[in-house]
Design goal:
By secondary structure, the protein is α/β, with parallel strands linked by helices. The two termini are 15 Å apart. Helix content is 41%, strand content 23%.
């Protein structure tokens, strides 16, 4: 059963090597009240997952060092991270993203350029699905 949670009690990790996209996501989520942690490559994303223990993760597919898919697979191979929801972002094309992201365990996927309202919806769904959290 899902429980109500305030955004300020939820930590989201956003990982993207495009600093402009990272800035936009960070601004949007902090304005909504979330605690936001950022990373600009896949290795840093895994480090922050371990240290910050986010409730949700937004991953760019194509990042240096480790791809978003590899980071997602890291999460899904470790039971300690079962409650962490994942949204994949990519500019590689809707069809490829749709076919590939679920194979690595992503809960949601959005194509770039992202619509911030779509991102809000995807976050709400992954938080409810994985962590049992309802925003409110």
């Amino acid at each position: 059963m899902a429980k109500r949670a305030k955004p300020e009690d939820i930590t989201i990790l956003a990982a993207d090597d495009d600093i402009d996209i990272l800035r936009i996501i960070h601004k949007r989520l902090t304005q909504r009240g979330f605690n936001v942690v950022t990373a600009d490559d896949g290795e840093e994303a895994i480090e922050k997952i371990v240290t910050e223990k986010p409730d949700g993760v937004i991953l760019d597919v194509m990042m240096p060092k480790l791809s978003g898919w590899e980071v997602c697979r890291y999460l899904r191979e470790r039971p300690a991270h079962d409650a962490v929801g994942v949204v994949m972002l990519t500019a590689i094309g809707a069809t490829l993203n749709e076919l590939t992201s679920p194979l690595y365990g992503a809960d949601e996927y959005l194509d770039k350029p992202i619509d911030l309202d779509d991102l809000d919806g995807a976050l709400a769904r992954i938080l409810e699905k994985r962590a049992g959290l309802l925003l409110g």
